[in-house]
Fold this sequence. Notes:
Keywords: Metal-binding. One of its GO terms (molecular function) is metal ion binding. Belongs to the DinB family. The chain is mostly helical. The chain is built from five helices and two strands. The protein has one domain: Up-down Bundle (Four Helix Bundle (Hemerythrin (Met), subunit A)). It has a two-stranded antiparallel ribbon with strand order 1-2.
Amino acid sequence: MTTTATATQQFMTTEQLLKDWQGHRNLTRRVIDAFPEKELFEFSIGGMRPFAKMAVELIMIGGTALKGIVENKTDAYNEEGFNPTTKAEILKKWDEETEVINHYFRQISEERFQETFNLFGEYEFPVYENILYFVDNEIHHRAQGYVYLRALGMEPPFFWERF
């Protein structure tokens, strides 16, 4: 009997994962920018939050969570401390957090992606699952932004143009 060894190749590198996430972030930034100022902070449908509130949530998760992973800190999630009143403030903070994400993401070793981490002291999953949650959460909220823009009679950015 003969056995054949098959080499397994990695599906995606960590750098590809970061590029994918940043592609989503680029598109979400364009959605934020597509909103008229007033509607960004006030418009909602069916009791959902205005898109500015959703954007603040996304801003406060990514970089903060990655810093916690790198530093092994499980501080509770907190949106306090960033209360923008203009679209420009949101976009500026978005860009700053993009750099924070890049900085901390690249400090996570390949091995750490498989380690369990108690994100914000609440969600205990492997690091890679936490990161996929950040992307999923962003896609979810961005879709809400798309609905808002369409309800306002505006064409949102094409969802496939992420870079």
